[in-house]
What we know:
Layout: H1 4-17, E1 21-31, E2 34-42, E3 52-58, E4 64-69, E5 80-87, E6 94-101, E7 105-114
Antiparallel strand pairs: 1-2, 2-5, 3-4, 3-6, 6-7
Amino acid sequence: xxxxxxxxxxxxxxxxxxxxxxxxxxxxxxxxxxxxxxxxxxxxxxxxxxxxxxxxxxxxxxxxxxxxxxxxxxxxxxxxxxxxxxxxxxxxxxxxxxxxxxxxxxxxxxxxxxxx
Length: 116
């Protein structure tokens, strides 16, 4: 029991960070089926052990159309905004942008975008 208590003391910092949320997103048509998706993400990054590690652009059927990988924590930069350029197949008129983190994967707040 005395070994378990110190280990349990480490859990709150990981648990408190929660899931990564997309709090804003924008889609800009670049022509030729190319789109730039810009996402603003909020996550209580604690460092390398728990941080927002990317975001996904998902089609209406759940297919991941593109992924922006984030290679480091953003402890001092919250929220932060990043972009990803990708091809979106013709006929897709709506996508969802969802963030992911290194502990929970996806699951926080997402933003749906209409592609006009």
